[in-house]
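Design job #97: recover the sequence.
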């Protein structure tokens, strides 16, 4: 199905034409006593009256005639369309759907709770009415399915800089969720405007354990950075002393110097140097 434009004219013109038909019927009955013609004019007027419809702003009327789709009316106002048709109203307004908190496993198998808000609108009224049974329910079910699928593609959190995570890359995850939802909802004539995560947390049964794991991983990552910086600083100090000729150190003294620098830099507490002032005797 694809949305097409239905036939319609200004409703006030249609009402005027109906009034003229009824007036002609009354005139015929009163002056010429032609009951048959009067009944015909009244029947035509009543038939045209069934085609009067009102379209509110940001709504569409889907017109069907004995099971055949004739088109849709998107303009707002009073109109006269094909008589004896069924007119179904479809909202074209922007709407949002808040998913419930879903419990899923991330890519590492950790149970997490996740929820999202989906902002969408109908752009094809024919698809929304005829290609799915209930497009609002279809949006809800497909949204939750897409959220579950996206949540299983990424870890909740990690300390690797080049890996996408649910917690650390919310914009990327939202873009992926929006694209996947659009693929699923195109069949219903729905455009996904935005999809954003509104809730993300570890499940209650593992929240405490995962917090300890996060803390341990954070400590290890920080220690790694500190060690890398300490090695770089010790190397730079040795090279600068050699290049400028300030001191001439043998290998044993270089080892001692590097050891002292590493201890001073890596230690969690401030270094307390011992100053050798020489012997008094």
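Job complete. Output follows.
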């Amino acid at each position: 199905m694809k949305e097409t434009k239905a036939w319609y004219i200004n409703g006030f013109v249609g009402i005027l034409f109906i009034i003229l038909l009824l007036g002609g019927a009354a005139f015929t009955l009163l002056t010429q006593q032609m009951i048959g013609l009067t009944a015909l004019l009244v029947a035509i007027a009543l038939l045209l009256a069934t085609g009067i419809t009102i379209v509110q702003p940001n709504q569409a009327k889907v017109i069907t005639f004995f099971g055949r789709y004739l088109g849709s009316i998107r303009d707002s106002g009073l109109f006269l369309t094909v008589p004896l048709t069924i007119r179904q109203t479809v909202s074209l307004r922007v709407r949002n759907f808040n998913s419930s908190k879903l419990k899923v496993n991330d890519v590492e198998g950790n149970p997490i709770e996740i929820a999202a808000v989906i902002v969408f609108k109908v752009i094809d009224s024919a698809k929304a009415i005829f290609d799915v049974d209930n497009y609002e329910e279809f949006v809800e079910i497909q949204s939750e399915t897409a959220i579950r699928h996206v949540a299983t593609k990424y870890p909740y959190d990690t300390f690797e800089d080049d890996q996408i995570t649910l917690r650390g890359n919310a914009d990327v995850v939202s873009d992926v969720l929006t694209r996947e939802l659009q693929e699923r909802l195109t069949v219903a004539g729905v455009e996904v405007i935005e999809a954003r995560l509104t809730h993300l947390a570890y499940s209650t049964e593992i929240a405490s354990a995962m917090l300890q794991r996060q803390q341990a991983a954070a400590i290890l990552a920080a220690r790694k950075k500190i060690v890398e910086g300490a090695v770089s600083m010790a190397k730079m100090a040795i090279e600068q002393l050699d290049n400028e000729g300030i001191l001439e150190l043998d290998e044993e003294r270089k080892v001692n110097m590097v050891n002292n620098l590493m201890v001073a830099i890596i230690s969690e507490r401030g270094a307390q140097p011992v100053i050798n002032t020489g012997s008094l005797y």
